Amino acid sequence: MPQDAPIPSDLQRWVSDHLPGADLGGAEDVSWSRGDSRVWRVPAGGAAAFVKISPSAKDYRREVTGYTYAARVLAPYEAPRLLAADPGLQAIMSSPLPGRVVRGLPLAPAVERHVHELAGRVLRRWHDHSAPAPPQDLEAVRASIRGQADEAAACLERTWAHLDAAQRSLVRAVAAELPELAEGLPVVYRHGDYSTRNWLWEPEPQQGGHGHGLIDFAMSQHGIAVEEFVWLCGALWVPRPDLKAAYLTGYGRALSDIEERVLRLLTTRLGVSYLHSGLAKERLDLVERGRLILTRMAHEYQ
Q1: What's 261's domain CATH number?
Q2: Which of 69, 174, 277, 279 has a C-alpha 20 to 30 A away from that of 203?
Q3: Which residues are bridge partners to 85 per DSSP?
């Protein structure tokens, strides 16, 4: 979305009704650089709020539920609070949170390890408060895993010529092993997008905080716990095993052998999906991302 995109008129009226002193003229577009991201920071006197239009009704419902869950299990300095929501507009208004987005933030290695340990600690608390998944959610989790296995098989056919023998073998293993291996793993209420773009770091926390904040609950839903680690595994942990060690220290436990295998398979699925999408859309960035993940999973992962 263009960074000067205005707030739609119907949303402006809603914001004015729910945010006293809202300065709509001073609103700043802070959307991610993708087509379905629509987020603004709206000043209001000495305060501010974030206003978001969810890309779908499903995203809206998940995010409102996620905010409710976050308010129950995380402190005010760890997660923003839901200030208002409107299902008709699919609009969400939330409080600001101190700190800066971790992705792309230049951090010294020791500080980065500390951030990862804090992130693991917060996620463990999030997972530990999960209620048992109802039967329909358990079936949805199984269907998602089967879908990812099927996707890997389909992508393998279309990317065969772009893979080496070890990569082909590992993608085949995704299709063959993933559903059965994942069946017995813990199911939790997941954040769903627990990557560094949704972590905030505040080096001088106030009000007894510890410096780590968490945003964006649009992907929150039940799933196997190890799914939370897929992006981190593909993007960060292979070249930086110290970050993985710090994160799992915060999380409070090591992964089981089966979880490690499932994590590798899920990350491989992500990599071959990136590669396939990049080839189909002629997106060199996606092709390179997919190749990097597949190389790491097939040749470097320990």
Answers
A1: 3.90.1200.10
A2: 69
A3: 92
Q: What is the mean pLDDT of residues 42-59?
A: 92
Give this prediction's pTM: 0.91
pLDDT digits (tens, 9 = 90+) for 183-237: 989 899 999 999 999 999 988 766 555 688 999 999 999 999 999 999 999 999 9
With a CB cutoff of 8 Å and minimum separation 6, the contacts of 128 are none
Place of tokens 């859309």: 281
The answer to whether residues 118 and 136 belong to one domain is yes
The 3-state DSSP class for residue 86 equals strand
CA dist 192 and 212 (Å) reads 17
Rounded-to-integer distance, Cα 222 and Cα 196, Å: 20
Tell which residue, 281, 278, 272, has the closest CA to residue 150: 272
In angstroms and rounded to an integer, the radius of gyration of the C-alpha atoms of the chain is 20
Q: Exposed, middle or buried by CB within 10 Å (0-12, 13-18, 19+), for 232?
A: buried
The domain boundary, picked from 94, 119, 152, lies at: 94
Q: What is the domain extent for residue 68?
A: 9-94
Distances (CA, A) of 189 to 89, 123, 127, 192, 248: 26, 10, 6, 9, 18
Residues 85 and 124 occupy one common structural domain: no
CB 268 within 8 A of CB 293: yes
Structure tokens at 177: 């092993």
How far apart are the C-alpha atoms of 99 and 32, rounded to whole Å? 17
The per-residue pLDDT for range 28-49, each reduced to its tens digit, is 998 877 667 789 999 998 889 9
Q: Residues 6 or more apart from 135 whose CB is under 8 A from it?
A: none
